[in-house]
Design brief:
The complex is a heterodimer. Chain A contains five helices and 27 strands. By secondary structure, chain A is mainly beta. In chain A, a hairpin with a 2-residue loop joins strand 5 and strand 6. In chain A, helix 3 packs across helix 5. Classes of the chains: A mainly beta, B mainly alpha.
């Protein structure tokens, strides 16, 4: 019986991720075009995307049109199941003046039978770890390439976690003619000049090409993945979920309760965060971070990073020192502890809650500067590793 | 006072006289009385009752089995939810004892309320769409976030409270 459930689970997991896979080399039994349309654009066009409980791929358009294509292909699937999947899709698109609106909402994309396994997948994969707590290990500095590799493999890692919950051996999904599976593709192609206003909820979205469009995004409980994202007028408001990108080149980004923000290179960006875990491969030019109670991991600095400003409250900053360059570091703190090279510096609480100078490294005349103002903060500087030994 | 009962009957018989249409009225009343149910009629009634029972019973069973499709998922999520909420409450109580900063406590209270409201919104979606893995994930991740931020902040405060030296370093 367990084997049966494992097979069912694997098939359904395959169907979930079928979205991201290459197509099989045989013809599927049924193909349904849910939505297919293209819209001409101009310099003033705004594309409004409302996506809920779905997944999409975004590409750069080859011309000045927005293309949207949403298909579902079924193989060896019972009619009833096909109909059940199709009837729960709510999709619409329209153009009014310079505004193009596309909305897609699905429900019931996966059957409950996945969860009929004798232990709930999530219980195995997540709950036990969260409830019992786990020991924090020292972390090693990651190279930029290593962080980029993490971003590249993030989907695979997540899939491994799901498969691991079922104790199913990982393997690349190989499509077979007699296998039951669904391939869902929602592909949106957007010209560079179009302003994208997106509201995403419980949605997985991958931007395949560099995304330099102006974007205003309101994102809830979703997974976002970019190759490169940035526009000086970008405003992102991300609440819960995941945010991964190889590069952020500019814009304003707000993260609240985000499980993991992973950024390869960061430059000309303002980040406002709270209750979030942020990992940055390399700090580039001129960034500012304002935070409350998040955890930051900064692995490297570009040789011309210019200025990094951090204003934080109850934040944990884990920073690997800039290598092979002269830099100036200045820390002002209140009720803050600073760990560097085995030296602990602390400004204790009490009295007026004013910031005091805690640590200075280098000369102020150096072009690369790190300025930290923090209250109730923990700051750890490391060379090759950062040890959390003081936590225990 | 002794009386002869035969005398009494004689007197009453003299008082009562039968109406003229007595016979006709009697027959008419007799006809109006219900006919005793035939065997066929009894069996028809039994069959009707059985039919109603079967139809209603089928409906109830079908309805029950439809609900059964969803209930294991809901039951599992409810169990997960109960366990998380219990742990969140334990961590919250421990946090408010540890934290001396009222502003911090207030900010966390607000954040937890916000997350709870978000959870209620997702729960509505879950009731409508209990089999959607994205919705289920959102529910569980919301609970995890609440628990995690409470654990993290307590660990943070403990580290801050470890050392009490005060000095400035210039390297």
């Amino acid at each position: 019986m367990k084997t049966l459930f494992k097979i069912t689970a694997l098939m359904l997991i395959t169907s979930i991720y079928g979205f991201a896979q290459t197509s099989p080399d045989f013809e599927m039994d049924e193909k349904h075009i849910i939505y297919k349309e293209n819209f001409t654009t101009n310099a003033n066009t705004i594309l409004v995307l409302n996506l809920k409980n779905t997944a999409a791929q975004v590409l750069e358009s080859p011309d000045n049109k927005v293309y949207i294509e949403y298909t579902k292909e079924f193989n060896n699937t019972r009619k009833k199941r096909v109909q059940q999947q199709l009837k729960h899709l709510i999709v619409s698109g329209k153009k009014e003046g310079d505004k193009i609106t596309y909305s897609a909402k699905t429900r019931n994309d996966i059957r409950f039978s996945v969860f009929e396994f004798d232990e709930l997948m999530l219980e195995r994969a997540e709950k036990k770890e969260f409830l019992k707590g786990f020991k924090v290990q020292p972390i090693a500095r990651k190279s930029l390439d290593s962080v980029l590799q993490d971003i590249k493999l993030s989907d695979f890692i997540y899939r491994e976690k799901v498969l691991g919950a079922f104790k199913i051996k990982s393997r690349s999904p190989r499509y077979k003619k007699n296998m039951q599976f669904t391939i869902t593709k929602m592909i949106i192609k957007i010209p560079k000049n179009v302003h994208v206003r997106a509201t995403l909820e419980n949605t997985n979205i991958v931007f395949i090409d560099d995304f330099s469009n102006r974007a205003t995004m309101n994102v809830r409980n979703s997974k976002l993945k970019f190759k490169s994202v940035g526009h000086p007028l970008n405003i992102f408001d991300v609440d819960n979920g995941y945010f991964r990108t190889k590069e952020v080149t500019s814009g304003n980004y707000s993260f609240a309760n985000v499980k993991h923000v992973t950024i390869g290179q960061l430059s000309n960006t303002f980040i406002n965060s709270e209750f979030t875990k942020v990992e940055i491969g390399e700090i580039g030019k001129n960034n500012k971070i304002v935070d409350f109670n998040s955890k930051y991991f900064i692995h490297n600095f570009h040789k011309d990073f210019g200025r990094l400003s951090l204003e934080t409250d109850y934040t944990e900053l884990n920073i690997f020192s800039p290598e092979s360059m002269e830099y100036y570091l200045e820390t002002y703190g209140y009720d803050t502890v600073h760990y560097k090279n085995g030296i602990t510096t602390k400004i204790k609480s009490g009295g007026k809650s004013e910031l005091s100078k805690m640590m200075v490294i280098g000369k102020e005349s150096y072009p690369n500067k790190i300025k930290i103002n923090t209250t109730h903060g923990i700051i750890r500087f490391g060379e090759k590793t950062i040890d959390f030994g003081e936590d225990n | 006072m002794k009386r002869d009962i035969r005398d009494l009957f004689k007197t009453e018989d003299e008082l009562k006289t039968l109406p003229e249409n007595h016979r006709a009225a009697f027959l008419s009343k007799l006809k109006k009385q219900s006919v005793p149910p035939s065997v066929f009629f009894v069996w028809t009634k039994i069959a009707a009752v059985i039919l109603i029972v079967v139809v209603v019973g089928f409906g109830v069973i079908k309805n029950y089995s439809d609900k059964e499709d969803v209930s294991p998922m809901i039951a599992q999520i409810e169990a997960v939810e109960a366990e998380y909420l219990e742990n969140i409450e334990v961590e919250w109580q421990s946090f408010i004892v540890l934290a001396k900063d009222e502003k911090l406590v207030e900010r966390f209270r607000k954040k937890l309320d916000e997350l709870d409201n978000n959870y209620q919104d997702i729960s509505i979606q879950f009731k409508d769409d209990a089999n959607n893995i994205l919705v289920v994930e959102a529910l569980v991740e919301n609970l995890q976030t609440r628990l995690q931020i409470l654990k993290d902040i307590q660990n943070h405060i403990k580290i801050l409270n470890q050392n009490n030296e005060q000095h400035e370093n210039t390297i």
